[in-house]
From TrEMBL, chains A, B:
Phosphogluconate dehydrogenase NAD-binding putative C-terminal domain span: 180-248
Matching PANTHER family: CYTOKINE-LIKE NUCLEAR FACTOR N-PAC (PTHR43580:SF2), OXIDOREDUCTASE GLYR1-RELATED (PTHR43580)
The name this protein goes by in its record: NAD(P)-dependent oxidoreductase
Limits of the Pyrroline-5-carboxylate reductase catalytic N-terminal domain: 2-88
Top-rank taxon, per record: Archaea
One Pfam family here: DUF1932
Length: 273, 273
């Protein structure tokens, strides 16, 4: 199986490790890419080609793994002759996936989404679209792909909805526990909420608050895509306020150069800056 | 131990059962109260007195268990001579508790909050204030009181913060799963979120969405108190949007005369009305 990546950052290089171990051949084009991507591709012993059109001639499956803003251009860059399977695995809303895949004139198309951090062992990849089984062949080459529907937009949609929930909870925790901390009842509140939310609540809540302090700016950006996805169906008032809360946090904390050790340290930094 | 209730609704009548079984004497004033309260007091064989001032002369501890709007008047109604312990157990913000307790000129004062439904066996009651141990004597008479701090406002504050979190999660679930339902991926989304949130996630999420459909109007009101409590420390953007989401739901669903059987039924009713 010959697999080509458009973009060779963290997602591509991490998936490449599994693919190579399991006997696939991996290709990418590094012309015009960053030094970071070039070095990664060299380090992983990936075959390089001069252009994305050349890539399309070489491989059976193309995975687009670029920055969200580049997703549509990536699909356009392979030209109109590709007859294999094109997979959009970018962190973008269903509408953007649909726009990107319109550039694939002859090939098969798949919507895919990585659930959670790509660095986790055997990270789960959701796939949708009637051609998703073509992509799922890569399960024989070390990936962990689950087909969840026959429509383009479902896999990327689930990723957006998961973000809507988990990022909303993070923002809610910050708002609630900041007030608790100021009232001197934060420890007690973990117990009281933990009584109904389960024994993992405290650990998970603390981890989310610390992580929010460090990633508020990136999460604020991600919430814009979430709002777009939800607004097709309703007025996403929670998604809007989640973005607003991350904005309030990021405004003061964007200069952090490491994760705070505790959530109280994060709150203190937030107050001081 | 002689315990007096101001107000004799669900909270008072439920706590009375435990108190009487465990050897306390219970008093209340039913003059000018609703037939519902009169009947409850009669049914539970509670001693009645003609006025709240008379109540204050009879008992060691007074528990104020009235509607939120009546909390301050309740404290004023016992006059200025009460030397026992006055406990505000109402569902109100810390600021309202403080205002109410200012009317108790000579007695001891305690802030208390019922966590969860009063109908649960041995429901947890949090108490704060330096006189909280006086109230906690009722643990010898069947109650389940936990002292969580020495300041008035901490117990009622924790109740508000618990509401901030649990009601926020409910609103977030509604917003997220309504979009999932419209995209045809709601079942899959339970699995994907459940992977990180734990095995109870689906059951708990469904129960919260059904409950939100039925209680949206009351919850919207409760979120106003939560906003007041949080706004002493920060701009409560999540609490505002949680109120707004309950408002969106209540506008269409306020006429429900029973809980929907499923969350999909709730979403269907919401779309149709």
């Amino acid at each position: 199986m010959k697999v080509g990546f458009i973009g060779f950052g963290e997602v591509a290089s991490t998936l490449t490790i599994e693919l190579l171990i399991n006997g696939a051949e991996v290709f990418t084009c590094v012309e015009g890419r960053s030094d970071f991507s070039r070095n990664l591709a060299q380090e992983k012993n990936v075959n390089t080609v001069p252009t994305n059109e050349a890539l399309a001639q070489k491989v059976d499956i193309i995975l687009s793994a670029v920055t969200p803003a580049a997703a549509i251009d990536a699909a356009a860059s392979i030209g109109t002759n590709f007859k294999g399977t094109y997979v959009d695995i970018n962190n973008v809303s269903p509408e953007v996936v649909k726009s990107a895949l319109q550039h694939i004139k002859q090939g098969k198309v798949v919507d895919a989404a990585i659930i959670g951090s790509v660095n986790r062992k055997k990270v789960q990849i959701l796939a949708s679209g009637k051609d998703a089984p073509e992509f799922a062949q890569l399960n024989d080459f070390g990936l962990n792909i689950k087909i969840i529907g026959t429509e383009i937009g479902q896999a990327s949609g689930i990723k957006m909805l998961r973000s809507s929930y988990t990022k909303g909870v993070s923002a809610l925790l910050w708002e609630t526990f900041y007030a608790a901390y100021k009232m001197g009842v934060d420890e007690e509140l973990f117990d009281v909420i933990g009584n109904t939310e389960g024994s993992e609540f405290k650990k998970s809540a603390i981890s989310r608050m610390i992580s929010t302090a460090f990633h508020a700016s990136r999460r604020q950006e991600e919430m814009k895509e979430v709002q777009l996805a939800l607004s097709l169906f309703e007025d996403p008032v929670l998604a809007k306020s989640t973005e607003r809360k991350f904005h309030q946090i990021a405004q003061k904390l964007k200069r952090l150069d490491k994760k705070p050790d505790t959530y109280r340290e994060a709150f203190l930094l937030w107050e001081k800056l």
